[in-house]
Amino acid sequence: MNQGYSYQSTLTASEGPHWRIEDIIGGKNQLNFAKPFMPESFARVEPLTFLTSDEKRVLNQIRGNAYLCIFGLVEEFILPFVLDHARSQLQGDDYRVRALLQFAGEEAKHIQLFKRFRQEFENGFGTECPVIGPPEAISSAILAHDPLAVALTTLHIEWMVQRHYVESIKDNQELDPQFKSLLKHHWVEEVQHAKLDTLMVESLAAGRSEAEIMKAVEEYIEIGGFIDGGLTQQVDLDMDSFIRATGRQLADNEKEEFRRVQLQANRWTYLGSGMTHEKVLETLGNLTPLARQRIESISPAFC
Ligand SMILES: [Fe+2]
Ligand SMILES: [Fe+2]
After folding, report:
1. Is residue 129 within 8 Å of residue 122, measured between CB atoms?
2. 192 CA distance to ligand 2 centroid (A)?
3. What separation in Å is there between the alpha carbon of 72 and the centre of ligand 1?
4. Rounded to the nearest whole angstrom, what is the distance from the C-alpha of residue 68 to the centroid of ligand 1?
5. Mean pLDDT of the chain
């Protein structure tokens, strides 16, 4: 049922592609603010036809900054979650312990990378762009849920990262090469995380009845609702940042359109693209077909 993943093979695969933060950001690795950072499929700035092309690029970059900062935020709950999961079984499978600690170590590095990125972004962009938080509050709200629900959320996030990079970023030649390089370096280490999440979900679901599994699935949906509330706030923060950065005044109907388009863009970026990922659905379906059906019934609202 584990889709062919093992702690030993993910550990071996994760020992290859290491990089250091200082080698991929700073020095000659500078952001180019003349270029967009995010693929249009996530940024969705084009439907805002009342913006000029320069204004669309500025909004795209604000979304790019929020994207990496939000990954930094969610990784702050993934790190303690993985450590707790490793801590509960230190005896027995040495590969398991090492694979999970490697996972946690990489997330700690990514958190630091994204903080470093945020400084670089603010220095170059010239306007402060606030992001929802604080990380500790978001992390403790998520970690208050059933560990299986947290593991499903983590699974969703990590497959989503895979999909974003492979489908929309890797072959996109319009994006700033430095921003793209950060996404690539993040992605390359995330590949093994998504497999380890699958193994964590399976171990946390083992021995549970269908009703107990479905209760955890409902909590995963609640966590999604909590994230959705954060995204609604983020859209307003992004609109304020956009107004400050460009000096552009928006009429009431333009603000309304901005909120509508950007909320759905955020929903697709962080919720829909994870909930509809075939690997997420496959893992849910392996727990119980009801879990897959439940998520498939609500995901269109986030696409
Ligand atoms: Fe990460
Ligand atoms: Fe990860």
Report:
1. yes
2. 8
3. 8
4. 10
5. 96
